[in-house]
Amino acid sequence: MNGAPLISLDNWKSWVLLLLSTSLLAGCNKPTSFEKIQKHKTLHVITRNAPAVYFEGRHGPMGFEYELAQLFAEELDVNLELKVASTRSQILSALDNEYTHLASAFMVASETRSARYLYSRPYLETTPVVVYRYGSKRPREIADLIGQRTGVISDSYHSEELTALEAQHPDVEWELLDVEIIDLMKMVQEKELDYAVVTSIELDIHQAYYPRVKKAFEVGEAQQISWYFPKTTDQTLIAKANAFFTRIEADGTLLHLKERYFGHLEQLNYVGARTFIRHTNSRLPKYEQKFKSVSKKVDLDWRLIASIGYQESHWRPKAMSPTGVRGLMMLTLPTAKEMGVKNRLDPDASIDGGARYFAKIKKRVPAEVTEPDRTWLALASYNVGFGHVQDARKLTENAGKDPNKWVDVKEFLPLLQKKKYYKQTKYGYARGNEPVIYVQNIRRYYDVLTWLTDSQPDEQAVAQSAFQDNLIKVSP
């Protein structure tokens, strides 16, 4: 008989068993998720451009989630390949299509998404809250939202919370808006919305900018923020992530990061008038001569350099941040090297390096910018980075205003926080409100130092008292 040989039943069984064992063996040899990362020496992470997540800061990439991802890649001894999404839906799509190993984007591990994604152990906890404008009627429960304009960010888990409550409160309606949290809060403060739903952490982060936006009540229970993984991820990578979070929680690293990005938020933007006056008497005299001698070398007013120093460290020579910024002028290591400062904790060296660095930035400001706007734009650049200030100047010019005037540019710096605007710029997202507050604070300190040092001794006590009373009134 021609053709393929017949296989007996016994041979068939043996053949099937051979195929099954071969397949099982092949399956056993299949590399795990972690082994694939090791092989390619790269950890792919997707995130989003937003406060407390990821942004380009004054000295490079920053953000709570960015730093977590970088630390995890270092622990795995691989390179970090970061992709930045514009929306939460893009992040979810990348996970669905296995374009990334994980998402580190300040996202809640919601129960409704557990069928689609896997989660790490939580590393933050937050609670959804309804916010309102102080001075208007405060809502006390979900029923109070009926007939009111309530905003919710699209692709966020807040809509899931409200949907779950819809059965009990079918008349409650809300608007899904493709904006960031800071936009929602501004809309509430400016009465464009009656209420909004945000997380408690995000409210804390932005309340300094919009102090009239207050918490009304909580919606549901506390939620856990975790890393997201594609559903196909095996436990090898997730186990590594969980062990990583356990370690950084035990050794204090996680606590330092939380403190940096979420703790003492008001301290980063405002300091008390009484504290400032006290420090001009107790701390400034120790460094006043150094401020004066260095400022002569760089042709700047010593009181301006002293004001920068106070904003940076409250004139504390041993000041340190968890990110490695140190000294009275809070120099980063790259800036210290650039300025030839060997010991950042030496107050004389720090003042010298900080003054020369500011003078260098000021020279970069375009020649058409005149004083005092030249100084204010240089201060903003010292804080947020020269590139971001140039982006803001371009937005100012495009709007038909004067890019050489601080009074106009300071209106557009905060727009670098909005996706609609930072997508148009070269350097992308920036926490644009911070340099505005930074410059305003320094101008305030500079004015009072000028007032105090130009006054006669018998006028100084009156000047101090008047400034203190005035500053307390205007502080948020």
Question: What would your notes on this structure say?
Answer:
With 476 residues, this protein is an alpha/beta fold. The protein has three domains: 33-124 and 225-262, Periplasmic binding protein-like II (D-Maltodextrin-Binding Protein, domain 2); 128-221, 3-Layer(aba) Sandwich (D-Maltodextrin-Binding Protein, domain 2), CATH 3.40.190; 273-474, Lysozyme, CATH 1.10.530.10. It is built from 20 helices and 13 strands. The strands form three sheets. Strands 1, 4, 5, 6, 7 and 13 form a six-stranded mixed β-sheet that branches. α11 packs across α12 (302-313) and α16 (386-398) crosses α17.
Please write out the topology.
Elements: H1 9-29, H2 33-40, E1 42-48, E2 55-57, E3 60-62, H3 64-76, E4 79-85, H4 88-96, E5 102-108, E6 117-119, E7 124-126, E8 128-133, E9 150-153, H5 158-165, E10 175-177, H6 181-189, E11 195-199, H7 200-206, E12 213-218, E13 223-230, H8 235-250, H9 253-262, H10 273-282, H11 284-298, H12 302-313, H13 333-339, H14 347-364, H15 373-384, H16 386-398, H17 406-412, H18 419-422, H19 433-454, H20 457-474
Parallel strand pairs: 1-4, 1-5, 9-10, 9-11
Antiparallel strand pairs: 2-3, 5-13, 6-13, 7-13, 8-11, 8-12
Helix pairs in contact: 11-12, 11-14, 12-19, 14-15, 15-16, 15-19, 16-17, 19-20
